Amino acid sequence: MSKLVYLVPLFPLLGFLVNGLGRKSLSKPLIGMIGSGSVLASFIVSVLVFFDVKANGGTVVTLFDFIKADGFTIPFAFQADQLSALFLLIITGIGFLIHLYSSAYMHEETEEHFGRFFAYLNLFVFSMLLLVLGANYVIMFIGWEGVGLCSYLLIGFWFKNNDYNYAARKAFVMNRIGDLGFLLAVFWLLLKLGTVNYGDVFANVSRLSSFDITAITMLLFVGAMGKSAQIPLYTWLPDAMAGPTPVSALIHAATMVTAGIYMISRSNILYTLAPATQTLVAVIGLATAIFAATIALKQNDIKKVLAYSTVSQLGYMFLGLGVGAYTGAVFHVMTHAFFKALLFLGAGSVIHAMHHEQDIRKMGGLKKYMPVTHLTFLLACLAIAGIPPFSGFFSKDEILTATFAKNPVYYFAGVAGALMTAFYMFRLYTLTFLGKFRGTHEQEHHLHESPWQMTFPLIVLAVLSVAGGWIGIPEVFAANAHSLEHFLSPIFADSAKLGEAHHLEASQEYLMMGVSTLLIAGIIFFAVTHFKKDGVVTGAEETGIGKVLENKWYIDELYDAVIVKPLNAFAGFCKSVIEKSGIDGLVNGVGKLVGYGSRQMRLLQSGQVGNYILIMVLAMVVFFLVWFNDATIYQFFNKIF
Amino acid sequence: MPIQYYIFLCLTLFCIGIVGVLTRRNAIIVFMCIELMLNAVNLLLVAFSKMHHAASVGNNPATTAGIEGQLFVFFIMVVAAAEVSVGLAIIVMMYRNTHSVDINFLNRLKN
Fold it and tell me: Are A519 and A423 in contact (CB under 8 A)?
């Protein structure tokens, strides 16, 4: 069955071609069916591949040689192993649900834009599948660029709004900065090892010096920073909320932004051998987790809160990778994909009901109008906050426990971030669903539960958000209950051999879990009671630290002042000075010189035959003198005279 | 007789020709000066041809060595005669058009 793994990306590619080319002639239900159906077909194949991998282990399927040059060959090969099979399920499963959701969410668009939307979505799924299926870094890079392109196209989907175009451009440029790091790392690998196939690279890792490994992992991490929105390249992700909400759910929460985590998990052996990079990854991850969480505390746009929450959760995943808890990071990718996709889809459902109102200060009391959305959103909030036995608890706990073994400072900072997560999520939940409705009368009149295409994915994802963590139950509760770790163990086997095992006392682990859960529950209680009073959300201006947080620590302004403005000024200087007087001056100068020279030369053409003959004779005399300088001629004349 | 005498004579004739061409405005005199230069070169050719083979000729009157240069000069004289006829025809036509043989009037193509 693994031999048929190429079918997985093939279906979305066909869907993209059909929807993209036929967007003007196909009807909306047909477009929706082709778009969702192609991903569903991929999902079915993925399930078969998953069970095959589970039973028989991973394989590499080579389709053809992609690049064949002197000294090295880069095959177009797919790797069906435990890690990619898991990602296949996440991408195609959640992808299908979001496609289904989109067919209702986007129903206001005209046929052509509807078709364009589904074509982009299918292209995205295709690129993402290429990214996780590729058996070498070059195929991964193709997917890596493809998802970046689709992200750009979908953020700027409503291209008539210039702000959205600006957000799309920002996302693309920031990603390109990261991509450069990735590309350099691939070249470095090719230079040192002559191969980019995962199997060959990881088998020959001993041939690399420690400097090479550190440099390669650092450069790869720069790529991950861009794609997975880590400090300092995270600012594009909140702006990417300009895209339609299903796009935010699929690309900017569940799949594309986790590409960096996939890449580092895939290269885990390199990272395990580069402790300096690991420390950097952990510190950047932790800093991002805390920093983004503080910003999320004061945001008032429902999608912005979720966006900063995503950045923060991605930070946790990098923290996990940095301390060597690769399984924990992948586990958190999975549970995060469930509950964050659910949160975004829930937010989309709310926005849909509120007629594109995104400010949570103008919502409230939606609980009684939208029961399904409310319940699923609540479950997702509990999951992300880390309340047992919801999925987020297990994955976050696994990461945090691993950090405690490495460095308790990471642990306490991580728990502080988790408390903030609980606070801002329940602030969001309370302001949206509890209390009194604060919008206009017209909006209140139109409030409705969303159609089944939108609630069905919510329910499925809610079930997964609740139960998804049960595949990774920690050792302290039951021995050998962590089936995910068992499943992924072949991928991380080499790293596990190198890393020293830290085992905490069971009592200590219980204590840590108990205290953090109690703290989180307390924070949730505080947030709900505090924000339930409608007086909290007046239009009062924030002051002090609140204002700084509301303005996102002024990071955008800082980047604007430090990078964008000087670059623009430099570009302006190049345009007005170097281009105008330098390049243009040179080109025009040559033209003017020729013109002036010609005007002067023209005067020689006097029309006087005598002048012409004189010039001719003078020229002959000059030639003669030049010739006369030649030694042999000189001797000849010496002999004569 | 040494070759230098011929060379000096030819140089003198050639320079007279050049000066005449440069200074005179009468087309016929300019033309004559051109002929003078041509014949200076002809003379040089014959002289070089003769002197070059002087040693091998010796006192042998039957030899043909060095005859090529003199034959060449005959050809040049024939061609020069043809050229003279053309040149004179041009001067006649010029006189008919401008009623003058002054070459400074030959600037109609200017501009």
Answer: no
